[in-house]
Protein: 3-deoxy-manno-octulosonate cytidylyltransferase
Amino acid sequence: MQEFIAVIPARFASSRLPGKPLAEIAGEPMVAHVWRRARESSAARVVVATDDRRVAEALAPCGAEVLLTADDHPSGTDRLAEVAERLGLAEDAVLVNVQGDEPLIPPLLIDQVAARLFDDPDASIATLAEPISDVETLFNPNAVKVVRALSGRALYFSRAPIPWDRDAFARRPALLETDAWLRHIGLYAYRAGFLADYRDWPPSPLERLEQLEQLRALHHGHAIQVALARVPHPAGVDTEADLARVRELLQRSGGH
Structure:
């Protein structure tokens, strides 16, 4: 695999879980667990990008590389654009955005999303998805759905249940009988040159409606490759209930 950098955006403020990067899990802050997972991938370098010195101080015992970034970035992608510029990366350098609230992220998926971008030199972004097998997830607006072309490139992302099964949904289905529905996994690989352009674009109308930053790239005609995840993707931490679940899992596994 060609060389890539893993970047972990760790925004301190969170409407649902304030101070989320520093939430304690198995004796360490959550962001430290994410950093260790990223270090187990093939990334040549792992950088934590945060807007708060408390995150940097919490990671000091790990020896993690931390970059203090602006506190007014509207999205993690915008934060990565600052990282790419500050590090002076070449336009074709590849960065993988590893969400700072995923302490269970499999390192294999970090490698997979980077490899997917290398496989399609004309794509600006690569990301992952997994099949949806239950109606609750399909109709949950917090579970983002994606539809892709035969080439694997994304056609559209939505919080709505796409594609819409006209006949079955009219009968209010209790189960799904096909594999037509995919849940988007928020793990991205980008080229540094694309990030420089992205930062200068205003949010697109569809992005504002759906509150999905990847729609800005589609709006401007950029290709997004979507691969099916090779291993299951554990859910991240958005709420106190999620945090309790992850704490229990890592406690049972000895913190690993």
Notes: The mean pLDDT is 89. The radius of gyration is 18 Å. The first helix runs from residue 30 to 39. The CA atoms of residues 37 and 107 lie 6 Å apart.
